[in-house]
Amino acid sequence: MHKAIVTLTLYALVSASAVSAQELTKDWPMWGGDPARNNVPVGNNIPTEWEVGEFDPETGEWDSSTAENIKWVARLGSQSYGNAVVAGDQIYVGTNNGAGHLERYPADVDLGVLLAFDRETGELRWQHSSEKLKTGRVHDWPEQGICCAPYVEGDRLWFVTSRGEVRCLDVEGFRDGENDGPYQEEPVEGENEADVVWSLNFMAAPYYVSQHNMCSCSITGVGDVIFVNTSNGLDESHINLPSPQAPSFMAVDKNTGEVLWTDDSPATNILHGQWSSPTYGVINGQEQVIFGGGDGWVYSFDPRGDGNGNSKLLWKFDANPKESEWILGGRGTRNNIIATPVIYDGLVYVAVGQDPEHQEGIGHLWCIDPNKRGNVSPELAFNSADPNKEIEHKRIKAVEKDEGDFVRPNPNSAAVWHYSEQDSNGDGEIDYEETMHRSCGTVAIKDDILYIADFSGLLHCLNAKTGERYWVYDMLAQCWGSPLIVDGKVYIGDEDGQVAIFRHSSDPNVAMVDDGGEMLPYYGEIEMNNSVYSTPIVANNILYIANRTHLFAIEEGAEPEE
Q1: Which domains does the chain have, with CATH numbers?
Q2: DSSP one-letter string for 4-57
Q3: Does residue 91 contact residue 119 with C-beta atoms inside 8 Å?
Q4: How high is the mean pLDDT in each 10-residue block of the chain (562 residues)?
Q5: What is the Cα–Cα distance from 312 to 511, expressed in whole angstroms?
Q6: Of the N and C termini of the chain, which has fewer Cβ atoms inside 10 Å?
Q7: How far apart are CA 530 and CA 367, in angstroms?
Q8: What is d(CA 16, CA 11) in angstroms, rounded to the nearest whole number?
């Protein structure tokens, strides 16, 4: 592990002073912490050094004898993609059943699993088990488990299962001796079972959603309403859309499961699947709920709907150039949206991407002004047969030049800035490090400094107001997750199982350190012993990081109990 040689005392004092002036983040109850989705909690003395210890390769049991700054470790499944959330006295993580925590579901039974642990000890509290759909990988990909984060408020939790459902759970499970919902039968004796209050099945009538590979959305909620992306998508042919009229976006009463309104805007233009998560904010007095669509468009709605069970569109934004093209297997230049939009200082930020199995490709990061209305895309498409009439969007390629289609700039464009390729060194060529590639990641922004990782493993640092490129760091490994900014530091994990830690700065000479001509993260890279696909979070001054198989609670000076 590389360590910075110089310690700047003044910087440390300023950082500690800034934290003390803010309210400490106690809970992190949804993906991104709150409905704006910006992963920037408040913490102090968050570790920059730790050792995870050793693990038995057969049993997965933890040997803490060599661990450092590890409070506890909890066993997850064999593949874990769900981001952790912390609320009350528990922490929740989505994974698969590789750990076999319940006797009735041994580890060789494939499930989508949501686990609840005691946040002080890491002890398992309960498990929610989603049995695999009989239709197989077209709807419920083997071994992938629960890939989203739940939303927790008070004594209730809401999440999207791998079976195409929203479920509301009692956060106590059956540990309180009560069955809070008639939906759930009494648990198997001696098992730590989830207590289901209500369930809403997207795949059943009247919605008939057909998710592609999996259903995954990290719910957000405001007041009595939760917002959900249903994951409606293509079938196994990757061409046919089984349910073109099925809703893509929903607003649901969080207390009863009643659907308040739906929207099917992506309709027949869905490219693959839909796995983005909604964002909510009040911007210049207007409530907005913002969805990333599987057609590569960003949609904003009035959260109240139109009062008749339908959505009320505020604006929509095509996040792909009109001349980009969708080609099967990721070989094209048109992308959908997997990342979660983020609201920061009245602006919306979102990147485009594809299923990671489609590998690398050109990407786009947008800063959008959410105060405009209607079609606020950067470009509009027309045809020479009627050059003053905007043509309908087309799924594969919005503009076919050989058919007389052409592009004009949109005078109503809401694009504040666009980041894709920048010739930063002025040599007339676009280098690998000067390219924004496809991304699953969500931006994190603080002090007008934006960080985002692309799937190619580049961490980009930009000016959030202008899109100016400050610096880029190559992690030399694919990255599925998003950055964490806390305590004057930036944390990001990668597929090789390392967490890189930078100082929060737009100056590369401050964020990183020169190690014999090679710029490296200021605090080095920590080995996590397995791939890190999820995003680090902080609550109550404890850093939580999940790798594929384990969840770690990391705290300065922590010593695990024997």
Answers
A1: 9-378+413-554 (2.130.10.10)
A2: -S---HHHHHHHHHHHHTS-----B-STTSSTT-------SS--S--B--EE-T
A3: yes
A4: 36 42 92 98 98 88 93 97 97 97 95 98 96 95 96 98 97 90 64 92 97 96 97 95 96 98 97 97 98 98 96 98 95 96 98 91 97 98 97 96 97 98 88 94 98 97 97 97 98 98 98 94 97 98 97 94 64
A5: 43
A6: C
A7: 34
A8: 9
